[in-house]
Amino acid sequence: MNGAVIVITGAQGALGRSVADLALARGAHVAGIDHAQAEIPASDDRIELGGVDLSDPDQAKVAIDSVAAHFGTLDALINIAGAFAFENAADGDDSVWEKMHARNLMTALHASRAAIPHLVRSSTGRIVNIGAMGALQAGAGMGPYAASKSGVHRLTEALAAEWKGKITVNAVLPSTIDTPANRASMPKADFDKWVTPQELAEVILFLASDAASGVTGALIPVVGRV
């Protein structure tokens, strides 16, 4: 990945940080975009754009365009930005469904739309989305989250078909990710069976690499040590 320019949305989360660190270690230039304010100072190979609401298409375009202008190109977009909420379908609040739709699906859509004009000019244009194993069959209380992530799966397939031969578009579907937040919310779970951010980062960066040029439209489960 030496010299590749990679945009990572949701870059300040546990997974975003792991992907950024691994990409930098492999010689990539990284631009992190997040709704939270930027915390990492800019360097020659890394910039951070904070305070960006990717559910707003105009903000997404400004952020992506500024990255391409800064580095002179854009080779890969990794859509990690998202959120989780537990809400029963029958008696829940519509605002939770709207929030999941905006933060999981629309952030990926708007970032992808903004990045595509730049990615098609790269010889290795890549989009990697984050879906969810839980969206393959929703359990109780998982309706809003699963519906939004199922939308990410369908977005991945549609973009892959629309841009076949020009950009590869794939998604990873993690099971529960081993993060401090998930450990705090599920303290009795068997953490050893969860997928780690580092394991996910390896798969994500493979899909963003030259080696994955023949893979597009794939939804790849990443379940950790079962």
Automatic annotation (TrEMBL):
Positions of transmembrane segments: none
Coiled-coil regions listed: none
InterPro entries in the record: NAD(P)-bd_dom_sf, Sc_DH/Rdtase_CS, SDR_fam
Family as reported in the entry's similarity comment: Belongs to the short-chain dehydrogenases/reductases (SDR) family.
UniProt name for this protein: SDR family oxidoreductase
Organism whose genome encodes this protein: Bradyrhizobium aeschynomenes
